[in-house]
Design goal:
Length: 166
């Protein structure tokens, strides 16, 4: 069974609790083929004494504490490579040159990283295996959790030739 870790900055706020049933639905569906572990790292609050760059650096430090560099690390960013769902399924479940030509079977675990409201630091971009984009559109970082889970489930159904993708 594939192991997947999702590291997200911040907690789902009360105003976005409507996302939880969808996230839980896709996690339950995925549980038959992979173990999904969630880690939430603290979201740094803006202040007059801290710049955005400092906030991003502190969030990156928190994220990096949960990354084992033997794992395949994937940062979700609007600056990343865009794919359609079929390409994402192939990338997620097969080998890909984005990861230096390594087969996905060479990785013990995949880690997806979802940044906070201000994005992610360049330090984090430089450390990960891959940087991908779910869209050129801007989404609330809390909503990205649901979008990612749905696309992971869609990738599995595409690979298994199930009708969900149709």
């Amino acid at each position: 069974m594939r192991n997947l870790r999702i590291i997200a900055v911040g907690k789902i706020k009360q105003s976005a609790k409507y996302l939880m049933p969808g996230i839980e639905l896709y996690q339950k569906r995925l549980s038959r083929v992979m173990k999904v572990e969630w880690i939430e790292v603290p979201e740094e609050a803006p202040s007059p004494t801290r710049s955005i760059a400092q906030i991003l650096e502190r969030e990156a430090e928190s994220i990096l504490k949960h990354c084992d560099w033997a794992d395949r690390t994937v940062l979700l960013s609007e600056r990343g490579k865009e794919m359609n769902s079929a390409e994402f399924a192939h990338w997620f479940l097969g080998g890909n040159p984005l990861d230096g030509g390594r087969s996905h079977a060479d990785w013990d675990r995949m880690i997806f990283i979802i940044g906070g409201a201000f994005g992610t630091s360049e330090k984090l971009v430089e450390r990960v295996s891959s940087v991908i984009s779910l869209s050129q559109l801007t989404f609330p970082h809390q909503m990205v959790r649901l979008l990612l889970m749905e696309q992971l489930y869609r990738a599995v159904t595409i690979a298994q030739n199930e009708p969900y993708h149709k």
